[in-house]
DNA sequence: ACAAAACTGAACTGTATAGTTTAATTGCGG
DNA sequence: CCGCAATTAAACTATACAGTTCAGTTTTGT
């Protein structure tokens, strides 16, 4: 079994996951996300799953396959969470703000950060994981948001621009230094204030760039961090 | 020697690097960046450096220390490259575009991507590396750019807003899907057209958000990727 | 030239780990 | 109650690797 095949085969053997299989998958996913591929031994996985090593190998052919399988699945699950607004009776700016808030909090979830870290770390040795993350999370969320933005553009609520680029930029405006700090685990962890400030700044800038008219609201300066000792 | 001390001590023993020490450092840096911490053995490093294992251990106390040392140094070197414009007689938009172009190309360099990958991968086990990357690369470039943007704001060339947030958003607008794709090694590698399109879109959006007046130039739609099968 | 220092190659220790095997045990349907 | 399949614990194989040691060789400073 080559590493490259492991993932494509992953979706196939999901017909009827035995309870043991679920135990193994959950324990292994948790360990892999917390510590990465190399730092987790198959003995540790068996122990954490409350299962013998023989059983582990009865369900999963190798460590590579187990890893690719689980992280690929984690990407799918994570990417399935749509972050788009369901009802949108309100002001567009308010809707965008709520959307940005949910999206940033999703990005900052320990689960999301762990997936990102482990995929970045192993994307060289497991290229299919890089592709899975990119397609099932990054690309899919971008396309979903683009479709929604396009509706807003068509309705005249936003300037008519390439909606894919707009979506991309909206997401990028949320993945700022606060996100980088969280990815790298640099203290302190994101505070409520920082999250809100980042959301506000992102929506503000996005709106100034994509709002159809320019009422130029007089916004006072804010500083999310630094500058003051 | 604890892992945590390794980095802080790193800068100290740099007084006079022996040629052998340089050989080791270069070989090890190259290997660590290409394959990550766990996948590189000390034997492989010694072999690649053309040095015996005893010599390796004469210069570096442990694999942990070697790794933290080298990647920390790589962060410093990488962060030292300023990306700011030296002369700025031209139109601000043109200057910004050149700046964005250089910054994005820097972000997409194999070297930059390798440092980012390895730091993200090991920031859990080597927290000081996460901090080093964040402070010496992310934070420093943000502050440099913020200072430059502040001058532009003070000169009336940009709307007076928090320059740190503006800098952060400018950089974020460059770290879009193209960058994510490169980080994850997803094919195809960034093309010249994609780089230019991303730069153009970023500058466009930044300018619409931060330009003092709104001449609202009629820009036609562009699509960097996707949407077409 | 000579002595000290740096360096080498190779063997060695101890440990960790992927994956296998086996004999004994448990659970379950008929 | 029997027998079959799943499971277990533990021992086992084979390998890889961090780090050490040492006898011998090369380099270097004086």
Protein described:
2 copies of one chain form a homodimer. With 229 residues, chain A is mainly alpha-helical. Helices cover 67% and strands 0% of the residues of chain A. The first copy, chain A, contains 11 helices and no strands. Chain A has helices at residues 3-10, 19-35, 42-49, 53-59, 63-80, 92-108, 110-122, 127-154, 163-174, 177-183, 192-210. The longest helix of chain A is centred in the middle third of the chain and has 28 residues, at 127-154. Chain A is elongated. Chain A starts with a helix and ends in a 19-residue tail after the last helix. The model of chain A is unreliable at 1-14 and 216-229 (pLDDT under 50). Chains A and B meet through helix 7, helix 8, helix 9, helix 10 and helix 11 of A and helix 7, helix 8, helix 9, helix 10 and helix 11 of B. The structure holds a DNA duplex (30 and 30 nucleotides).
């Amino acid at each position: 079994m080559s590493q490259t095949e492991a993932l494509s085969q992953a979706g196939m053997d999901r017909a009827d996951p035995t309870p043991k299989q679920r135990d193994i998958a959950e324990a292994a996913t948790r360990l892999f996300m917390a510590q990465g591929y190399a730092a987790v031994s198959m003995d540790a996985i068996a122990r954490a799953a409350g299962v013998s090593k023989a059983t582990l190998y009865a369900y999963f052919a190798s460590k590579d396959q187990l890893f690719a399988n689980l992280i690929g699945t984690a990407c799918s699950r994570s990417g399935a969470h749509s972050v788009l607004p369901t009802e949108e009776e309100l002001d567009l700016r308010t809707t965008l703000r709520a959307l940005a808030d949910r999206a940033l909090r999703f990005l900052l979830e320990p689960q999301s950060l762990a997936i990102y870290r482990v995929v970045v770390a192993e994307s060289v040795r497991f290229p299919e994981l890089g592709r899975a993350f990119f397609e099932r999370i990054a690309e899919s969320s971008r396309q979903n948001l683009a479709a929604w933005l396009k509706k807003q553009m068509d309705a005249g609520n936003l300037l008519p621009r390439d909606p894919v680029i707009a979506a991309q930029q909206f997401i990028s405006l949320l993945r700022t230094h606060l996100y980088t700090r969280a990815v790298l685990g640099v203290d302190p962890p994101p505070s409520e204030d920082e999250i809100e400030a980042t959301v506000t700044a992102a929506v503000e800038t996005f709106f100034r760039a994509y709002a159809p008219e320019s009422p130029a609201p007089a916004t006072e300066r804010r500083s999310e961090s630094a500058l003051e000792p």
